[in-house]
Amino acid sequence: MAITEGSKNPYAPLKIREFQYFIAGRFLFIMGLRMTGTVIGWWMYILTGSPLALGLVGLSEVIPALSLALYAGHHIDKSEKRKLLLTCVLLYIICICMLVFISSAYTFQHLNKWTIAACICGVIAGTGAIRAFSGPTFSSMIAQIVPEQQLPTAASISSATWLTGSIAGHAVGGILIGYLGIHYTFIIILSFVVTGFFLLRNLSIKPILNKAAGKTWQSVKEGIDYVFKTKELLGAMTLDLFAVLFGGAVALVPIFAKDILKVGPEGFGWLNAAADLGSIIMVTVLTIYPLKRKQGKILFFVVGGFGACIILFAVSKLYWLSFFALMLSGCMDGISVIIRGTILQLKTPPALRGRVMSVSSMFINSSNELGQFESGVAAKLMGTVPSVIFGGCMTIAVTVFTWFKAPSLRKMEY
After folding, report:
1. How many C-beta neighbours within 10 Å does residue 413 have?
2. Whole-angstrom Cα distance, residue 195 to residue 187?
3. Nearest CA-CA partner of 132 in 67, 36, 200
4. How far apart are the first and last CA of the chain?
5. Residue ranges of the domains in the chain?
6. Which of 99, 215, 352, 362 has the fewest CB atoms nearer than 10 Å to its CB?
7. Which pLDDT tens digit goes with each residue over 71-92?
8. How far apart, in whole angstroms, are the C-alpha atoms of residue 178 and residue 86?
9. Are 279 and 399 in contact (CB under 8 A)?
10. pLDDT at 100
11. Which of 411, 286, 404 is nearest to 10 (CA)?
12. What is the pLDDT of residues 250-272, one digit of tens each?
């Protein structure tokens, strides 16, 4: 009876001690990860002055992330998830240590700027490989920490935690660059991730739900087949993939901040956090007041609205309007995150969670880096503002196309 009542309480999962450690550890890890992305975006543009260099950062991360994603799902389902998660965080700590060294005065005295940029891309490739395992592991662990009746609420809280960490990371990263510089900002990031590691060590050992895993390709194929058979999952993932791929204006925020809006690293940090701020507002609202009906149609409307916001951001020459456009785009994305996350948790069998989450990461998470690469190349070829307008228009076009091609997603309710 307590569990049934808890399923109606939006804060019920937070009463579970282990979930508290999970959420706190994930928050610090994501905050460190987003701070890293913010610092590297600013650093690479200051270092090279090239929009294409920003695109190459995204490409450096997405190649290993995509290459390993399907194998990662197979490995996650047949592994003990606590040990795997701690290994991922520990490897990420090593990557941050490398960035601390690369950003030191010693490195700047002995290497030229393009060699430093290449070293940065090398480390980012390492974080991409780690992320192929860490993201799906975090997502698949939720169902092993909270009761099934609390999964929708726990998924919303987890999404809110991810977004809060992302906001804090973007904003704090930009502020610290201005006050401490890049090198010391990486030291602060290191302290956050190390603290997150020790919090996650409090998680208990998790049972392996798929001990009878077959050959790697056969196991991977089961996850892919399940996604393609479940039309709501496939439609939601595909819609998000193309929306983020073409609407990735955030990748070009360093250029807008420095060259168009004429603000420093602090203004850049807040501009970089604007979309996540909007997302967390909507995720918080929807956690307390969940969507009751027509979630499928709502998903289409918010993705189309996201594209319109990106166009508004592109044409704005005022800092406050640019901030508002990105924040509003985040509100649209926050609703999308809740709908997608709930579908994913409710429609995925426990034994397939790692593989389905990995397929999801290929569609959703990697689309950010592919979008970053696309934005960098498009900005180089078309110019910064036209490339972002083009991306927003393509997002709206994809939404309209999918509306007619995916009727089951349009009619979906949960």
Report:
1. 11
2. 13
3. 67
4. 23
5. 9-202+215-410
6. 215
7. 777 777 778 889 999 999 999 9
8. 32
9. no
10. 95
11. 286
12. 667 878 888 888 887 778 778 87
CATH code of the domain made up of 9-202+215-410: 1.20.1250.20
Tokens of 15: 């009463």
> What is the Cα–Cα distance from 365 to 344, expressed in whole angstroms?
14
For 167: left if phi > 0, alpha if psi spans -120 to 50, otherwise beta; the answer is alpha
> In one letter, which amino acid is 94?
I
Cα–Cα distance, 283 to 336 (Å, whole number): 9
Neighbours of 286 (CB within 10 A): 20
Cα 46 to chain centroid, rounded: 24
In this structure, are residues 414 and 299 in contact, taking their beta carbons and an 8 Å threshold?
A: no
At what angle are helices 319-347 and 265-288 packed, to 10 degrees? 40
Only one residue has tokens 């009463």, namely 15
Question: What is the distance between the alpha carbons of residues 264 and 268, in angstroms, rounded to a whole number?
Answer: 6
- Note whether 284 and 278 are within 8 A (CB): no
Highest mean pLDDT among 52-66, 110-124, 167-181, 223-237: 110-124
Read off the tokens for 403. Answer: 């509306």
- Dig out the tokens for 157 from the structure: 């809280």
